[in-house]
Amino acid sequence: MAGNVIVVGGGVVGAACAHALARRGLSVTVLDPGPPPGSATLAAAGMLAPFAEAEPDDPMLGLAVRARDHYATLVPELEEETGLSLLYRTDGIVELAFTEEDVDTLRGAISWQRQSGFTVNWISAEELHDLHPGVGPTALGAALAPEDGGIDPVALRQALLTSAQRVHGATIVAEAAEQLLFEGERVCGVRTASDTHTAESVVIAAGAWSGRVRGLPRSLPIEPVRGQIATFPWPEGEPPAIVYGAHGYVMERDGAAIAGSTMERVGFDAATTPEGIQRIRGIAARIFPALADIEPTDTWAGLRPMSRDGRPIIGRDPLVPNLLYAAGHGRNGILLAAMTGDLIAQIQLDEEIDYDLSPIDPARIWPA
Q1: Of 21, 27, 68, 325, which residue is least crowded by CB atoms under 10 Å?
Q2: SS3 (DSSP) at 1
Q3: Sign of CA dihedral 3, 353, 182, 267
């Protein structure tokens, strides 16, 4: 099933879908009025961290690792095509243990991850402080995922849209989708405030706002979950790092320390709060004590699109086969974005996919 495709949403996931579809020769129109307040893409730190908080029975882990590795080939192509730097890095992520319970938990996680064939190692407190001397002295060691890393989400989105438009012929319309249009049981287009756009297929990729498009064949259970973030100057003399710990993280990007984050169910309120920023300051200070008495240089919040079961919704609507979803990515939108785009293109073109998509299949959301 090919033809012209409308992508509803121009955040990083929508941009990745547009790019993947357009580079395969499809006619693509992106409906994107620009990032709304609380856009998850603009707020994200950009970690590529499939092992953070992963569980032994996590059905997403294999896909998440493949998604991380997908950037190794995509990023050089995008940077060459667009001239943009995506600040892509694969220098590893550490997850700190501050208590003996943390040590047991992380060692247990490393055990099952290594048995599953993944590269994750335990490093002692001495090794940790040799690697990251500014980390809090109370850290007892850490799990090191040496192949994990990060990317600049804003630059990634821009590069995907620029490549899709300039190199592969996609059209970007600076309007929001208001309503899906149907002919019988098939979607046939999308109405905006000023126009009607026809399509042979439509992809819903509007982040936390995906469920607000009128005319969806059923309620799309995606809830905005606010995450607050603060930035600080990167500690002087500290090597660049991405560090988890104390129920948060600190990530170096372009000379800044990005620290976060909260998980708050407050609807579409994208404001920061004194309580939220104070919590983040506490996380940052425990990870890097040098940040304890430094005021944030900036603060913001984003609205993560969280599905009912915490997994993304990627694939065809079970009753409307030319309506596809790329939504509900929660805290893993940047990690999964490029892979999501490729999956949507493969599904759209009925290409064979060599791994199990049932954990992300939209059919799980609406059982028969």
Answers
A1: 27
A2: coil
A3: negative
